[in-house]
């Protein structure tokens, strides 16, 4: 019997986390993935008749607007490692009346798809979190037709901010809490795996060129994350990547962190009780396959 590798264990945990969150993912009074996905599609500019692949499609924040732009002759395939996400995305496509969408459960790091079968590959906050994202980028280059494009988003990583969250959260989430995470998710490991090539645009460009892309364009823009309240944001954080941290925290530390975040975020609300508005730096990356 084969022994599970650290990568296998990581993917199993991620799959379980997002399967558990699918029913409420991005639906708890917080806006972030939808405006970010819409902006990515705008920059990627899918055209009528094109074949689109969305990697880690979630509930379709990027997939569905892209599908609408390539319709009626174009197609959009969404893949996700979590089958519950695929099911929910299918329901959302049906609700919106979008019929040129196909959805499949698939490991985004090793897509089992025909070579040169897409004109555009998209990945909003997904591609860069694959265990070996740089190797995966080369696989996506192989899936693109001549002149095909890739477009994806990433956090704007810096060495002194809490991983994956806007700078606002760095003083609110003690780094020592990360000791409860598996070693592979500790800051120094994350920096080697992610920040080391995503932090500097020159390194990111070099990685894309090595993977078989050219004409790399990198644009950093803020996305306004809005939450109905501090409590809404904390509840929402259990439905996305931060869920992995919450699941590993001891009960007392999770309760203390929850209270600290709710208090700090509610302090940002306007006097009239308006929403929490957080400016999130997002990196948008586009490139063309080099053939």
Structure report:
It holds the Pfam family Methyltransf_25. With 291 residues, the chain is α/β, with parallel strands linked by helices. The protein has a single domain, classed as Vaccinia Virus protein VP39 (Rossmann fold), CATH 3.40.50.150. Helix content is 39%, strand content 23%. It has an eight-stranded mixed β-sheet. Helix 5 crosses helix 7 and helix 8 (230-237) crosses helix 10. The termini are far apart.
Shape: globular
Quote the beta fraction.
15-25%
Mean pLDDT: 86
Which structural class do you get from the secondary structure elements?
alpha/beta
How far is it from the N-terminal to the C-terminal residue, by CA?
Answer: 42 Å
Quickly give the CATH architecture. 3-Layer(aba) Sandwich
CATH topology: Rossmann fold
Radius of gyration: 19 Å
Helix/strand order, N-terminal first: HEHEHEHEEHEHHEHHHE
The number of helical runs is 10
Q: Would you state the CATH class?
A: Alpha Beta
The major β-sheet equals: 8 strands, mixed
